Amino acid sequence: MTTDLGSDHRGTVERILRHPASGNIEWRNVLSLLEAVADTTEEHNGKLKVKLGSETEVFRTPHGKDIDPQMIVDLRRMLAGAGYAPS
Fold first, then answer.
1. At residue 11, what are phi and psi to the nearest 5 degrees?
2. Residues in CB range of 48: below 8 A, 6 or more apart
3. Is the bond leading into 20 cis (omega within 30 degrees of zero)?
4. Is 64 helix (H, G, I), strand (E, B) or coil?
5. pLDDT for 2-57, tens place per residue?
6. How many CB atoms lie within 10 A of CB 31?
7. Would the pLDDT of 87 be above 70?
8. Complete edge-to-edge strand list for the sheet that includes strand 39-42
9. Distances in Å between the alpha carbon of 13 and those of 1, 9, 43, 45, 85?
10. Is the bond preceding residue 86 a cis peptide, omega within 30 degrees?
11. What's the whole-model pTM score?
């Protein structure tokens, strides 16, 4: 399903799914990817509610520019469940 994505979004998916995880996956790239593939809603408290496939997750905007390891784990699960992981 990643073939439906542009090259920037495919690169972001690959960095999220790569083992071991990259330590520098930028939030702005993740946000752009999520807005392209999921239903996203910014909540009044600044958190981002994401519905992708059958899963819904609420993400806190990172303090720095990169996402943390737990967010990588959560995104991997959501992307794999929605068919974005390689088979």
1. -60, -40
2. 31, 34, 40, 41, 42, 58, 59, 60, 61
3. yes
4. coil
5. 667 889 999 999 999 998 887 789 999 999 999 999 999 999 998 999 999 999 99
6. 18
7. no
8. 39-42, 48-52, 55-59
9. 11, 6, 24, 27, 8
10. no
11. 0.90
DSSP state of 66: B
- Look at residue 21 in the predicted model and tell me its pLDDT: 80
The sign of the CA dihedral 33, 38, 44, 47 is negative
> 3 by DSSP, 3-state: which?
helix
Q: Look at residue 3 in the predicted model and tell me its pLDDT.
A: 61
Q: Hey, what are 58's tokens?
A: 């609420």
